[in-house]
């Protein structure tokens, strides 16, 4: 597995990361044993970056990863953790909090659940509209000084917030959705990060399975948040699957899968971009790992662009009620 530096101030990580959210119920039921086996397979294949959030399964995801990491060399693994989203006992969402005093509380619980002494990259999952980003980053910086955090990251914020945060403490990366069908960061956010030497960890590279080549219209079950996603709704999903069909023809001509060419496209957009793959099973992980061997030349990139033009996806990436609260949506 090729390794890259995550921004100019971040750690050396694998060129592909494993996003673990789907292992804790966000896409419906998951198999604990298979999830742990998938994490082990990822580590054995050379993936060193594991991404989670303390609110994934209300702590379930962190405990799962903690169990999977037992007996592994901690210094060879980078843990990226998001915090700030609040949950209720029924599993619902009840707001967001990134005040300095809760940063310390969230971090203490995260360290306990993961069973580790430090977090490699700690980041607020969204901008708290009631708390200046300088205060949140300053609180994490105190934890860096104390040795509990190694690097500070951001997630789903726009150019102004990125610059304000970077003025307080070096930011190693911005975690944000980026894929063939979610290219909003190209206008302002990506240039801002590159100007400041901040890397990108790209989630949603397969648009939550939509452009994986495996999606079926009847695949959304109970507990799957895609049931509310605009791109999976009637009137949108058929148009989006037509894009996937066109991409499939390009992939077939290249002798690779749709998922592999979609992941490879993200990686081809720059050495400073690290795709996060959300594989929940070893078979899907193996397919994603195959993207590392896919080289896209200028003709390939042109064919992909023709198949899935920028802005061609039908429906927003999140429901409107969530988009209005996302700082990253205020600027592309």
TrEMBL record:
InterPro entries: Aldo-Keto_reductase (IPR050791), NAD(P)_OxRdtase_dom_sf (IPR036812), NADP_OxRdtase_dom (IPR023210). Signal peptide: none annotated. Keywords: Oxidoreductase. Pfam families: Aldo_ket_red. The keyword Flavoprotein does not apply. Residues 16-307 form the NADP-dependent oxidoreductase domain. The keyword Flavoprotein does not apply. This is Aldo/keto reductase. It comes from Sinorhizobium numidicum.
